């Protein structure tokens, strides 16, 4: 008789508070919120039974559910700056077992701030515990550098080697292999983890990963690097962003999506907004690609109609129920809603998000909107976000 497969639970701690990068766990890399990237890779793992996101934030919860995770509400006493990841994992594991009536055998801690973690890494640490007898495991990258540390008084003592004798410089091949902890993924035997209360106990296996993918996002510079690298790494793992084969229509909100959501009012009460020329270029490219286009806005404003005429795009504005108007438009055009990409930025766009196959939020959108989106631009509304989306769809940079 074949033994039942172990229950392997991946837990992604993702609280809302972040000082270094505000709303960090919802930041888009490669057009996908960090928390959603981690969920999707966990779900693609061969060994992971289920994925839990532990959070105190509604936007993160929406993004996690949209990517297919179970959400556990994290209590405030373990959601602050001093709370440990271990506390969040144990709480999430307890909540999952109680709600599902399942005993977890192996629990994983997966950090969504490591944007280039892949399912093979997750399977590697899971297999070390579930199949190879380790008590704990972690992802590491081969490291060949010389590590130095300053003395207590650098001006007087200078620095000394940590992993080497500074008076002796052996060749790389003559030195023992060192490994760098990536911070991306950990696996623990669940029973041992509860007893120890921390992620390292017993036998700890090192699971090697590609050093090129090692990046932890702690500050805006890290996020900028991740966004620059994403096209290189994500090209090997397609499917995160929409292409021309995925959609038949693009529907655009106006305020906050094609503008920066600010309004200038002159002394006569006339309203002015700023738009981005690059967005016009992107819309023209989409029109040439024979996609159906529509501007859909709650505001009844002459500037919306004027911009639509300039772009040669049909417009429906002054609409209270945008979802009903969108549904009717799809029926009239003979377009299946699941083949529609809708771009929005605020909570009144959420009903349309629930209707279409490709809900997309612009950077700077409301947290809940970004969380509900299937993809998020790296560019804010009014600063070229529509051009960025057009480049996704058409598979090329627009010039």
UniProtKB/TrEMBL annotation:
Enzyme Commission code(s) on record: 2.7.7.43
UniProt keyword annotation of Nucleotidyltransferase present: yes
GO biological process: N-acetylneuraminate metabolic process
Keyword set, alphabetical order: Hydrolase, Magnesium, Metal-binding, Nucleotidyltransferase, Transferase
UniProt cofactor(s): Mg(2+)
Region (Disordered): 149-175
Reaction(s) this enzyme catalyzes, per UniProt: an N-acylneuraminate + CTP = a CMP-N-acyl-beta-neuraminate + diphosphate
Pathway connected to this protein: Amino-sugar metabolism; N-acetylneuraminate metabolism
GO molecular function list: hydrolase activity, acting on ester bonds; metal ion binding; N-acylneuraminate cytidylyltransferase activity
Iron listed as a keyword: no
Subunit structure: Homotetramer.
Annotated family: Belongs to the KdsC family. Belongs to the CMP-NeuNAc synthase family.
Protein name stated in the entry: N-acylneuraminate cytidylyltransferase
Species per Swiss-Prot/TrEMBL record: Streptomyces iranensis
